[in-house]
Amino acid sequence: MPELSDRPRVPWEVAARFAQHISAELTPLAVRVKTVGSIRRRKPIVHDIELLIEPPNAADLFGAEAPFLDNIRAKAAQWGDLVKNGDRYIQIAGRLYVLGEGERPVNIDLFLCHPPAEWGSLLAIRTGPAELGELAVTRMKFFDLQHERGYCVNRRTGELMPTPTEDEFFRLARLPCLPPSKRHTPAAFQPTEEVSRVRRSAPF
User: Fold this and answer.
1) Segment 110-120, tens digit of pLDDT
2) How many structural domains is the chain composed of?
3) Residue 15 — very low, low, confident or very high, per pLDDT cuts 50/70/90?
4) Which of 28, 45, 103, 188 counts the highest number of beta carbons within 10 A?
């Protein structure tokens, strides 16, 4: 069975170009494709190539999912060995060329956005950092919201709380939606003024 490389270290410029190539290959097969993870956050050194993909006709899983996944898997096989091959997550042990250093291993993660998961939720969580996503999901519980598998519901009414954008995801958590390159900073973890007022009378 193929194995993933042990935390490869790839310069951001190299990883971003490779992610752009993968995105261009996947775009004709999908509604939209977005590079996420540490590449989107513009970290100088990248360990994984991560992309979020919305399948075509995502609401019609039985009619559209099978050919879409077959096409995605066929593309993925061109970049390396499939390590995980699910319908929501595909992981590839691949290789890329670094000028002056030759080939080096790289891990490629493809996250698929199937309903009821929403694009904004998965985009925010998969962009990271992980600690920020965990904080947002935890804070939602303070407002009687439950977030799991990429979507959010009101725990009292069962109502689906739409998160089509990152702004909506962070708004439900009462956290600021900062640019990806700023989401590791202390400001990204500070609650908005609205939540600060609530927390004075209801400790979190």
Assistant:
1) 999 999 999 99
2) 2
3) very high
4) 188
Residue with tokens 């996944």: 69
In tens, the pLDDT along 50-96 reads 999 999 864 454 544 568 888 999 999 999 999 999 999 999 999 87
Extract the tokens encoding 114. 């199937």
Q: Nearest to residue 72, comparing CAs of 121, 143, 22?
A: 22
pTM attached to this predicted model: 0.87
Domain boundary among 112, 142, 166: 112
183 — phi, psi (to 5°)? -80, 0
Same domain, 141 and 179: yes
Of 87, 103, 105, which Cα lies nearest the Cα of 49? 105
Euclidean distance between the first and final Cα of the chain, in Å? 45
Nearest to 180 by CA among 25, 16, 11: 16
**Beta strand extents in 99-144 (DSSP E only):** 102-112
Helix (H) or strand (E) holding 169: helix 166-173
* 145 membership: H or E segment, kind and range: strand 145-148
Sign of CA dihedral 125, 119, 60, 92: negative
